[in-house]
Amino acid sequence: MKIILLFGPQAVGKMTIGEKVGTAFNLPLLHNHVTLDVIWPYIGWNQDTFMLSDQIRMGIFEHIAKEEEHPGIIFTFVWGFDLKEEWDYVDKIKSIFNKENHDIYFVELEAALDERIRRNKTEYRMEKKPSKRNVEFSHAELTASAKKHRLNSYDNEIKEDKYLKLDVTTLTAGESSQQIIDWINDN
Q1: Which of 77, 96, 106, 122 is placed for a possible disulfide with 163 were both Cys, Cβ 3.0 to 4.6 Å?
Q2: What global pTM score does this model have?
Q3: Cα–Cα distances in Å, from 5 out to 46, 79, 85, 105, 170?
């Protein structure tokens, strides 16, 4: 079973790249807005939104982990490296997929802020993520979180055996996903 954790700051390309990697390995993609965009229209953006989203995600992970024949999943998320609770969140995911036949791949994406701001307004992003259609709000959230939190790891901070960090600033989604596919095939 392949578990691919694909993380990085907002608008770095996680969903688009995750779709291509998922197609290559026949894995479903759970991008971080799948659950959030189901909940926020009913209760708004607040702590309960994120709590309910996490409950749904963990339920999905636990179900997949129990199914011996399941191929796995790709999960995309933003990781605040300066927040202990986010390290704990990743540890919780790892604990669910702790069987010998579960291969967990950590793929971190990074890109320059100006490129992420450009990508934040793409038509495909708007189509797939309803909460990002308010471009002014999305832009403000992206730039504020870039100032407030550290959304990419330091060198050698992540100590996982199967870990790849990829700067996608100048790469297409196809080029990025192919590098990830090749790396996973080699591991």
Answers
A1: 106
A2: 0.90
A3: 24, 11, 17, 6, 22
